[in-house]
Amino acid sequence: MKRVFKKVSLLLVIVLILGTLSACSGGEKDTSANQNGKESKEADTKNEVTKIKLKTVSMFGATDPALEHYNQMIKDFQAKYPNVEVVDESSASNEEWKSRIKADFAVGNEPDVILYFTDANSHGLIESGSFVDLNTIRSEFPDYCKHIYEHAYTAAPDGKQYAIPTRGFYEALFCNKDLFDQYKLELPTNWDKLLTAVNTFKENNVVPFAVSFSDVPHYMIEHLVLAAGGVEDHRVVPGSLDQIPASWIKGMEQFKTLSDLGAFPVDVNSTTDALSAELFYNKQAAMRVDGSWFMGGITDKENVVTMPFPSMTKDNSKDIIAGFTSGWYITKKAWQDESKRQACVDFVEMVSSPEFLQKITSVAPCEIPAPENMSLLDQTGWDTFVNAKDRVDLPIDSRITGEAWSSWLNSVGNMVEGTKQPKEVIENAITIFNSTKE
Amino acid sequence: MREENRKKKILGSVPIYIILLLWAATTIYPFIWLILNSFKSSREILNSSFNLPQNFSWLNYINAFGKQNILRAYGNSLVISGSTMLIVLLIGSLAAFAMTRYQFKFKKIIYFMIVGSLMFPVFATIIPVFKMIVKWNLVNQSLGVIIPQTATNLAFAVIVLMGFMDSLPYELEEASFLEGASVSRIYTKVIVPLSKPALASVAIFVFLWSYNDLFTQMIVLRRRETFPVCALLNEISSKYGTDFGLMTASVVLVVVPVLVVYILLQKNIVKGLTAGAVKG
Amino acid sequence: MATAPVYYMRIEGKREMIYRKKINLLWLLGPMVFIMITFLYYPFVSNIWNSLYNIVGLGGNRGEFLGVRNYQKLFEDPNILIAIKNSGIIMLLTVVFQVGIGLTLAILVDSVKRFKKFFQTVYFFPIVISATAIGLMFNLFYSYYGGMLNQILNAMGHNPVNWKSDSLALIMISVPIIWSYAGFYFVLLLTGINGISEDIFESAMLDGAVGFKKVYYITIPLLKNVIRTCIILAVTGSLKAFDLPWVIAPKGAPKGLTHLLGTYMYQVTFIEENVDYGSAIAFMIVVLGIIISQITNRLMKQEQY
Fold first, then answer.
1. Which residue has the higher pLDDT, B270 or C260?
2. Out of B141, B222, B240, whose CB is closest to A22?
3. CB contact under 8 A, A103 and B146
4. Is the pTM value of this prediction over 0.80?
5. Closest CB to C56 among A124, A214, A272
6. Short-list C139, C174, C130, CA closest to B34
């Protein structure tokens, strides 16, 4: 017994000493200093020149094909600017990642340049003055990222622009074209064709829409509003109850109408998004509303097409939900360090250059050449985005957020069943929205 | 007569074995399910999860190992969770010993303090703790994870150890006392040896929870070299929705070392330590 | 039979004598108190303070002063009522079944001669497998289109059932919760049984206490402390239960009907980014937990604390 206890306590002491030692060795101001930090320190002393250390953070995760290109770009960058050393911390952007970024800013451990969201996720950080706005940057570097389309920028709540968008997305209606052909149906370019398709599929035991309202009702809300009111009404941010467009209510009423026609899976209020997507992949369902990233999972690329969600008021609508909800920020902390300004600007210029964007995305905020040899799916996707031109709008939840949006999302199940009235749901959400915003 | 009794006894234990085996079937099944599914693609899992894989593909494991240094991640996990476990055991057993043996003024308050902290969600405490970690230069350091994890697991350890120590017989402590042993000696010579099974059970769970605590790990550690296994594998399986194939393979890779730790520690959860152990 | 009470009796006088020097508390309790205050209570109290201000997003700045508005909201929010009700049901089920099954298994495993190590090992499996994986497995059981349960029903010629419909969902969520952590209480209770001196069992046998009698009169009374510990852990555990229910029924699916306090707190804090209100819920959970564990202690006649 004595031996066991001694062993345990000895081990404990060793661990503690090791821990303290490693803690002390990181006595440098830069907290990210570990092995790499030490190596670079040695390199520094050899060179005698003080390298600028640029701390960058991106959301390219380990299995993101873009990561490889990104890492290569960092190498190219360091080759081009030998006086800059890039210390990059990239990671997939999940909940933990977001919490980590917020924690970093909260305690002053933020990076110099960061690829982060431009939607409501960023508002808190912008309000606390964490980033430099583009006007400030351009007053010193007038040509900073001038090649980016003006409409690709997202304005923060204070009206200023902060981030340089790079990788975008769009949302669209995905159709299993082979199922439409099989039942001699036309693709739903207007509302009547959509209703016909829903009825026909329902009669033939094909689920019309593969969707989960308990997990991801977001796309359906946005597209029903879009169907009833087009991008113009979708863009409205109601400051009071009487500013709510009538089309919003009309759109939300379609939840019950479509549900009564049997447009949704039986377990639509309790299944998960992944399982509902399987219905579409397996041709058990005919249609699905999803984002451009959904393409990656589709193997049958010659029988699936994307198109804008049909409008209730016109034929061949081109209106889509699309945009750029992330972008590259320069933090105020980096900007205040004048020696770093140039390096920050150079880095963002390179990471937003058409040459780099072409490698990582087909939805770019500037002109890039169309990829060659596209499949039917890729071609229809490219067309959907390009044809929309400026008839695009960001999702509603890029503006109406948090509790308000959540109350709306969580009421979809009740609207489907008719236990809550659309008017009451939207009014409730807008009331919360206007009471919580500053 | 004797023979008959023996038969009766054996027959009597048959229903017990049946019950135990039935429950065992429910707990073994998911493990087998997990292993089989780790050889499938994400799509195959969602569509025919309960069948044998169409062909045993190592792709998920190859992806999981990929370019990452998973062995180093195991090492990091062991250092972090092992240290957390040892520190919690030491501090927790001292506290439980005091709480079950001493009468003092603020005992009730301290008891409430322990029970209350059982329910603290990590998000509610992490920001101030992270501030300290940054101030002490512990970002990207194992110690930066060990400290908060020790704090969050301490309450559990103390509560469980109190339950066990309350039931320990007093005779041995008295005997030691009469022989002139000090309190620290009673703790090391009587309490710790007698509590060995309880310490082992607590150790298992503290290790497990520290090992699986992704949130703290992700907040404090940012460089892939410092990642423990869960953080490393979480990243590859969570991008692009969820790749269920990579996820199941990751879970298998995560589970195996915990089972090894469990089987090692489980040896201590045995009978007959009570009296004999202390005399030796 | 008389052995148990005698064994259990404590001679207060002697105990007072051994543990009379309160100065020892400094090194016995000091480290724990220090760690808890620095890394749990100081942050948590500042978090309660946060719940009086408007805060958007984790680590966000304190906005407008709200006072106790978040605490008033606790009483008005219909989701809180649902969550408290559901957490109460889950708590009852976990205490009765999780601890109950754990106790039964521990007693049975203790009573058999062979395969003890085998059972001890396999009963631990569900605890180590992550909630994401267990949740996925159960979702594939429950799925309406081609889920395992509906395949079985189909094979028997029945119509498929929507297993996570409004009326069934909570039960379907509680099954994996109870099942996966029964092994946790099994390990703790088995440890407790192993701690009971063999002498007691032997003398009980001589008195004719075997089988159920032995369990009822000897094992359970002697395990009382450990059982109480398990109940307190089950109570506090079900109040903060989060990961498995979140995977099986995200956002309280269907229609928020299956929200638990833990899942609702997560939704409010991380999805709605309403950190101040989330903190208020966290505070309420802690208060509820302390009250209920105190009731447990009273019911199980633990006057010491």
1. C260
2. B141
3. no
4. yes
5. A124
6. C130
